Write a sequence for this structure.
């Protein structure tokens, strides 16, 4: 019985270690903009932005969505403008320059612009 408990504990520790290590393992640094960058942007958007901007909407200021026409209406004409807002924040939107790396901000801005182009579908 004692051996079974030890085995179960070891199996649990092993599975836990795989859970903690697997997100880091196998990640490759890429120098080109690829779907990997889009995936990074989507992932960060999901974890950091969807509280206020799910589906390209804006729950704080409903008229300031992330839809293409609205972005353009408020002076966002491409990813560079979006990157600036993500970095510096404005109004109730926090600045992310201290919590996201420049490449992550770039990935999120490109993701938002691409989604706006597709109508957030």
């Amino acid at each position: 019985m004692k051996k079974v408990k030890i085995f179960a504990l070891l199996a649990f520790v092993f599975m836990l270690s795989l859970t903690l290590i697997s997100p880091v393992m196998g990640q490759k640094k890429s120098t080109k903009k690829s779907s990997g960058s889009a995936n990074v942007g989507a992932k960060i958007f999901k974890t950091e932005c969807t509280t206020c901007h799910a589906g390209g909407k804006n729950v704080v200021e409903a008229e300031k969505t992330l839809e293409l026409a609205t972005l353009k209406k408020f002076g966002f004409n491409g990813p560079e403008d979006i990157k600036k807002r993500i970095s510096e924040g404005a109004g109730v939107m926090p600045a992310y320059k201290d919590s996201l790396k420049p490449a992550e901000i770039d990935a999120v801005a490109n993701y938002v612009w691409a989604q706006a182009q597709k109508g957030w579908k």
